[in-house]
Amino acid sequence: MGRVLYSVGSLVLLGLILGGCQAEKPPPAEPVKINPYAMASADAAYKRGEYEVAYRKYLPLAEAGMVRARVRLGTILHDGLGVPADHAQAAYWWRLAAEQGNASAGTSLGFLYTLGEGVEEDHAEAVRWYLMAAKLGDDHGQFNLGNAYRNGRGVEQDQAEAALWYRLAAGQSYAAAQYNLGIMHAAGEGVERNLDEAVNWYRLAAEQGYAPALNNLGWLYWDGEEEIRDPVKALALLAIGAERGSENAAINRANIAGEMTPEQIAEARLVAREWRARIAAWEDVRQ
After folding, report:
1. What is the pTM of this model?
2. For the chain, what is the domain count?
3. Helix (H, G, I), strand (E, B), or coil: what is residue 21?
4. How confident is the model at residue 131 (pLDDT cuts 50, 70, 90)?
């Protein structure tokens, strides 16, 4: 058989003292008045793909302090939607939103620090923002924080801590976190080695159509412990993983297909059809 391939993201206002007297306080600023339909109008333009229009509509709202407008403005500028990409400006708006307690902006800002986009690369600073977002329940922040602990980037490497944050993200159906937990349980990395747990986490990710999980679960069904082996399921899952872009799954499928009977191959096609329907149902729910 050919080689096996495993698929292994204040200003502190100082009292000004002049001639022994405190400076006169300026009058309070007038509250910014925002058209209650302005955000809906900006969102509608964004959903229609009219990104330049959306940018112009979001900008005054973001300048007025609207958190969601700041988050969306950061996305437009980061991705270059309708306007030239500007990662530094994306970081500016995401930082303002994150400082207002927006979790997704915190995760996005952390990612910029991880990549060094628009800011100087700083993994410790990335972790600070991931942690802020993760504590607020953001699954992307939890997953990225797990990656930081697993790889020792910005924090001391700690596989058990990585597993903890992956588990929180996995509990929110984050497929990549479920997949990583599968790897960790299969290898005994940061958790006790447990192939049943590995199969369970791979299965949860595979049911969402996550191609690396389809590959790894398929291979466990082919070459795992005797009690979990199922060559028909193995071929079915590897076939779907290959359809979904996993080169490893395509190679593994080709390796095992020659060792199976025509009856097993026919049965695998039926099992694959059931799995495709299961994945499609999940994708409908997410939409």
Report:
1. 0.85
2. 1
3. strand
4. very high
Q: Which pair of tokens denotes residue 269?
A: 């096609």
Residue 196 lies in a domain: no
d(CA 190, CA 221): 23
Q: Which residues pair with 18 in a beta bridge?
A: 21
* 205 neighbors 175 (Cβ within 8 angstroms): yes
**78: in domain:** no
- Backbone angles phi and psi of 210, in degrees to 5: -75, 110
- In whole angstroms, what is the distance from residue 170 CA to residue 178 CA? 5
Nearest to 63 by CA among 87, 97, 29, 26: 97
Domain of 221 in residue numbering reads as 203-287
**Please, where are the H alpha helices in the chain?**
38-47, 51-63, 67-79, 87-99, 103-115, 123-135, 139-151, 159-170, 175-187, 195-206, 211-223, 231-243, 247-257, 262-286
- Contact indicator for 207, 182 with CB cutoff of 8 Å: no
Instruction: Give pLDDT, residue 33.
Output: 64
Whole-angstrom distance, CA of residue 164 vs CA of residue 167:
5
pLDDT of res. 117: 97
Instruction: Indicate the residue type of 31.
Output: P
User: How far apart (Å, rounded) are the C-alpha atoms in residues 104 and 94?
Assistant: 9
Q: Residue 145 domain-assigned?
A: no
* Phi and psi torsions of 43, nearest 5°: -60, -40
| Cβ-contact 186, 193 below 8 angstroms | yes
Q: Provide φ and ψ at 17, rounded to 5°.
A: -105, 115
